[in-house]
Amino acid sequence: MGGKDIINEVLTLKRERKAVILAHNYMNHDVQVVADFIGDSYDLALKAMETNAEVIVFAGVRFMAEQAKALNYDRIVLAPDPNAGCTIADALDVDTLRRVREEYPNVPVVLYVNSNANVKALADYIVTSSTAVRVVKKLGSDVVIFGPDSNLADYVAHMTGKRIIKVPPSGRCVVHGSYTARLVKEARARYPRARVMIHPEAPINVLRLADFVGSTNQMIEYARSSGYNEFVIGTEIGMLNALRIKVPGKVFHPLSTGPYARCPFMGMVTLEKVHGSLRDLVHRVEIPKSIAEAIREAFERTRKLLEG
């Protein structure tokens, strides 16, 4: 079955299954073509809640599908490749987080959305790369436990002036953690008219060299609304697909094309796997109801804090 045939088959299956396909900004172009919504992990989980779909196919890594299940517990949620993990999420386990909480009692626990469900259930607040700084600023405590991404923790500390206890001390994204100041300087020399946008999962010394620091959705909005026409993108290289779809007419260059430009886990989720998962309704995501309830409570607590 060729590419166009698979796309047509997926579109037919979506109607028959009363399904919605959510594709992360980092997905391959052909996966984004069949998606109903393209965005970051949290945005997509919320989008699923707004639909009447009976089946949710989450084209992203495992923690994202778990998150969609937690927020849409009564729906069928499918992960096209359940082995697609995340180096950030897998850096923190339940026992480690419990030990740190005992060491620092009464200190709020803020977890990045890039964490596995059983860990996320222990959070007081759950943040995205776009809300982490705002949430920590609003907390009454001058000390915060933050994980699992150590680079994002450094950025939050830099932006808030608060003491951040990193758990674990070295969790990082295989893509963003590989960025260096040299890459930014080389990109500026190569594209002197371009604005440099970098994701806050990058090291703090790299972020200081950026024109704009933000999440994938914030990058899209900045590229769309700014008066600039050329950009260097400091995030996973699949993001160029989303930018070219959502911001046509502007020029985008990857900060890196090296061995870590593409997330190996995001690359595991292909159109063929989306098709097979939807066709056979396989790789259903299941998490304990108590875990789902704890995650929803943490998200709701976070929402109220941001709105307060």
TrEMBL record:
Cofactor annotation: [4Fe-4S] cluster
SUPFAM superfamilies with a match to the protein in the record: NadA-like
GO BP field: 'de novo' NAD+ biosynthetic process from L-aspartate
E.C. code: 2.5.1.72
Keywords, alphabetical: 4Fe-4S, Iron, Iron-sulfur, Metal-binding, Pyridine nucleotide biosynthesis, Transferase
Gene Ontology terms for molecular function: 4 iron, 4 sulfur cluster binding; metal ion binding; quinolinate synthetase A activity
Highest taxon listed in the record's lineage: Archaea
InterPro entries registered for this protein in UniProt: NadA, NadA_sf
Pathway: Cofactor biosynthesis; NAD(+) biosynthesis; quinolinate from iminoaspartate: step 1/1
Keyword presence, Zinc-finger: no
Name recorded for this polypeptide: Quinolinate synthase
Native source species: Vulcanisaeta souniana JCM 11219
